[in-house]
Amino acid sequence: MDVNSNAFGQCGNLSIINVHPENTHYSSVNGVLFNKDQTVLLRCPINYAAPSYEIPYGVTAIGEGAFQDCSDLTEIIIPESVTEMGIGAFTRCGIRQLPIPGSIKIISHFAFYGCFNLVDAAIPDGVQRIENYSFGNCRNLTQVTIPASVEKIGGRVFSGSYRLEHFTLEIVHIHNF
Questions:
Q1: Can you tell me the distance from the alpha carbon of 101 to that of 124, in angstroms, rounded to the nearest whole number?
Q2: What residues contact residue 22 under an 8 Å CB cut-off, 6+ apart?
Q3: Phi and psi for 169 in degrees, rounded to 5?
Q4: Which of 98, 38, 46 is nearest to 67 (CA)?
Q5: What global pTM score does this model have?
Q6: Strand-pair partners of 130
Q7: Which of 52, 104, 118, 160 is the most exposed place for a label (fewest CB within 10 A)?
Q8: Tens digit of pLDDT for each residue in 59-114?
Q9: Strand-by-strand arrangement of the 40-43 sheet
């Protein structure tokens, strides 16, 4: 059994998701939905009760649309155990800082699309790919730093982020032999 990223879409009053302990497919911790073994965070309720959320250590993946439309959530702490994020994982989320640890190699399509509170995107060393529209429509994004570890930047990554003023692409010094 799998949860579609839109299963709880437009449930603006949803503040807690509880799963019966005997459920064989899902679990919940502090009102957030996980797979049974709590390695995949599937969905944070749109109206989560706190402005901050710390993903438990041991989670290895953030599901597609997991924090989508959580506009009151301004801080998310992601542990180094997380190595994957689903498409649109933080779309229209209220985060103010980029919460990506260096353990994540790919910033997925639409990952931070429409995150209006995001101002500075300092992508950590270790990220190798930034997929299409990852930071699209981040209207208050003013500066971005891309580390030398990034090998591919997709199309329209910053489309609609019209306040972007400073873009830094770090490069590694190349020696001539």
A1: 7
A2: none
A3: -115, 105
A4: 46
A5: 0.91
A6: 107, 153
A7: 52
A8: 999 999 999 999 999 999 999 999 999 999 999 999 998 889 999 999 999 999 99
A9: 26-29, 32-35, 40-43, 61-62, 84-85
